[in-house]
Write a structure and sequence with these properties.
By secondary structure, the protein is mostly helical.
């Protein structure tokens, strides 16, 4: 366990501002070819976030909100509790984008409510084929994602029960099962 130099939930002391939140240092990158692993670093975190982009035709106000979300996720490397803030910003950006895309449907009352919120906007978009599960890699890979998560949870539980500081497993332990996607109701 890493010795903590300051309160993780308080204001970060100036001399530690550029250090990763210790909770982020528990993650590793695994080379699936060689099986080797190494601790994740800021560049890995940045690479994951930079993979998400919007096309050039997105209105500037939506692009700005999206970039704000990406930057909050980036800075979550330093303050772990920024992850839910970044997620909230992503959802706010999605609502803004749907509100822009569906402004005529909102104006004409096809979507009920004075100012329909994200849930209604997203349901309308899904029901009308504007958003489909098949377009999301997480949906396409749901079986593998769930299977890996199940093995990871089992190994973490085992490590906790045995009071271990680290645990490994073989990729062949992962049995891929069919994925399930729960849609919006």
């Amino acid at each position: 366990m890493i010795e903590q130099k300051y309160d993780l939930e308080g204001l970060r002391p100036a001399e530690h501002v550029c250090e990763p939140d210790s909770r982020n240092t528990m993650f590793v990158r695994i080379d699936r070819t060689s099986g080797s692993s190494r601790p994740m670093v800021l560049a890995d975190h940045h690479e994951l976030i930079s993979a998400y982009v919007l096309h050039a035709g997105v209105p500037p106000e939506i692009m700005l909100q999206f970039e704000t979300a990406r930057n909050v996720y980036l800075y979550a490397w330093f303050v772990y509790r920024f992850y839910p803030v970044g997620e909230h910003q992503c959802l706010a950006c999605l609502e803004l984008a749907l509100r822009e895309r569906l402004k005529e449907e909102i104006r004409t009352g096809k979507i009920k409510g004075k100012r329909p919120a994200l849930r209604l906007l997203l349901k309308y978009a899904v029901d009308n084929g504007l958003v489909r599960n098949e377009g999301f890699s997480a949906w396409q890979n749901r079986g593998e994602i769930n299977s890996r998560a199940r093995v990871e949870a089992e190994k973490l539980r085992e490590a906790s029960e045995k009071n271990l500081t680290e645990i490994t497993w073989d990729e062949s332990d992962i049995q891929i099962t069919a994925g399930i996607w729960i849609g919006i109701t």
